Amino acid sequence: MNKQEIITKFAIQGTILEVKEYGSGHINRTELVETQSAGKHHRYILQQINTDIFQDVDGLMENITSVTDFLRRKIKARGGDPDREALCVIPAKDGSSYCRVDGKCYRMYQFIQDAVSYDAVERQSDFYESALAFGTFQSLLSDYPAETLHETIADFHNTPKRFAAFRQAVQADVCCRVKDVGKEIAFLTEREAQMSVLTDLLAQGRLPLRVTHNDTKLNNVMLDQKTGKGICVIDLDTVMPGLSAYDFGDSIRFGANTAAEDETDLSKVSLDLELYEQYVRGYLKGCQGSLTGLEKQMLPMGAKMMTLECGMRFLADYLSGDTYFRIHREHHNLDRCRTQLALVADMERKWEQMAEIVAKAE
């Protein structure tokens, strides 16, 4: 079945004018669909879901539709524009949230007009706006029953289990690379006791289970083209039950690093405290007091744990023969690992400042 026939399975308006590739995502295949009816143009996003990663498509789409419906009701109730401030899933004509064609799964969203996203932090204001948007996302969903969501990727941010998988990769040493990474293995092993801090607090009931996005990069927030204000959080594939510290921490790991994720010159790697403070201010403002005192206190730990976890995932993949993360050069995953560990080390040097910034923020 060709693309035009797939598109017509969805409840869209008008006749199809153009279909073209769209965006810079690496997981799902994304295309922009333009249609016209009665002289009016309409735009939609068509995605082929990556079923290698997301095997439970029913669970995935149930998460997305229930969360977006909840968000849209909340946004409308507070006088906002749900068509710009939340994703809108376009149903298939049979009423389902996606369609399956020739063994492949497709979904469609309404396109968010006059908005842009950025792959890297160019201005502090953009980082602040992304923080405000993710904080607002957390606040709007603070009374959503997180435990009812499907875990689309099991133990995604279970740091102790990630460490156990890393240890298994070290023991297996299938590519005989362990001998060259003793320093990195020691760095991670020395911090093993810290890796269960967040999961222990959750298990003890001291941290609440939240609806978490789990991929809080800058490019997953749409910014208004005219005002630069954060409008809408997108890419909800990894929306799952989790901890607020996970979402905060992943944003800091990715956005407040002074170097690229795969920088080979580790002297360039550091935590930008100005960007960190911008994000803390924006995130907590967006949360509007919905976080508990301990949740707020654990935000720096979230930044450290997400960075540490990512570093050991890169190293485990390197030791296993680079089977998960796509690489573009020899030792690419090792370079990524070293960057993350260098960032962790700098966070540890700046730990008191990180905690003080959070404590002073409203």
Could you write a compact summary of the structure shown?
It is globular and about 65 Å long. Strand 2 (29-37) and strand 3 (40-48) form a beta hairpin.
Would you kindly provide a written description of the structure presented here, covering whatever features stand out?
Helix 4 (124-140) runs antiparallel to helix 8 (244-255), helix 9 (273-287) runs parallel beside helix 13 (351-360) and helix 11 (299-319) packs antiparallel against helix 12 (332-349). A hairpin with a 7-residue loop joins strand 1 and strand 2 (29-37). The N and C termini lie far apart (54 Å). This protein has helices at 3-7, 57-77, 82-85, 124-140, 159-172, 182-190, 197-203, 244-255, 273-287, 293-297, 299-319, 332-349, 351-360; strands at residues 15-21, 29-37, 40-48, 89-90, 99-101, 104-110, 115-116, 210-212, 221-224, 230-233, 240-242. With 362 residues, it is of the alpha+beta class. Strands 1, 2, 3, 4, 5 and 6 form a 6-stranded antiparallel sheet that branches.
Topology, pairings included?
Blueprint: H1 3-7, E1 15-21, E2 29-37, E3 40-48, H2 57-77, H3 82-85, E4 89-90, E5 99-101, E6 104-110, E7 115-116, H4 124-140, H5 159-172, H6 182-190, H7 197-203, E8 210-212, E9 221-224, E10 230-233, E11 240-242, H8 244-255, H9 273-287, H10 293-297, H11 299-319, H12 332-349, H13 351-360
Antiparallel strand pairs: 1-2, 2-3, 3-6, 4-6, 5-6, 7-9, 8-11, 9-10
Helix pairs in contact: 4-8, 4-9, 5-11, 8-9, 8-11, 9-13, 11-12
